[in-house]
Amino acid sequence: MALSVLVLFSTMSFTIEKHYCGNNLVDKAIFSKVQKCSGMNNEKDDLVKKPCCEDVVDVVEGQDKLNTSEFQKLDLDLQPVLAIFLYTYSLTINSLPKETIPHRYYSPPNLIKDIQLLDEVYLI
Fold first, then answer.
1. Ranges of H-type helices in the chain
2. Which of 40, 86, 98, 105 could be stapled to 36 by a disulfide with Cβ–Cβ 3.0 to 4.6 Å?
3. How crowded is the C-beta side of 31, counted as CA atoms within 13 Å?
4. Widest CA span in the chain
């Protein structure tokens, strides 16, 4: 289970977007768009003067190539040893004995009167 989670996270890629206004970090986002500050809304202002805001995008790339091996690619000396090991290991696994329930067909007697109530004995 742990190995499958490790393989999943090592092959996953994602981006981290950061928005700076001056030297101050305004917003940081993973898997979504970063929110811009109010000075970046008007496109005409961008053409007239250079804004002090900056967007930084960091891309974390996962691993692209995984090594997979097949049984046929193993050395010829190693194949019989592995097959014999798996065969003998499968023989050592024993199933549990069938569980017997001795009171399966037991039916309790019919109660005519509640004895605890008659004797005024209450369980606390």
1. 2-11, 43-48, 78-92, 115-118
2. 40
3. 2
4. 98
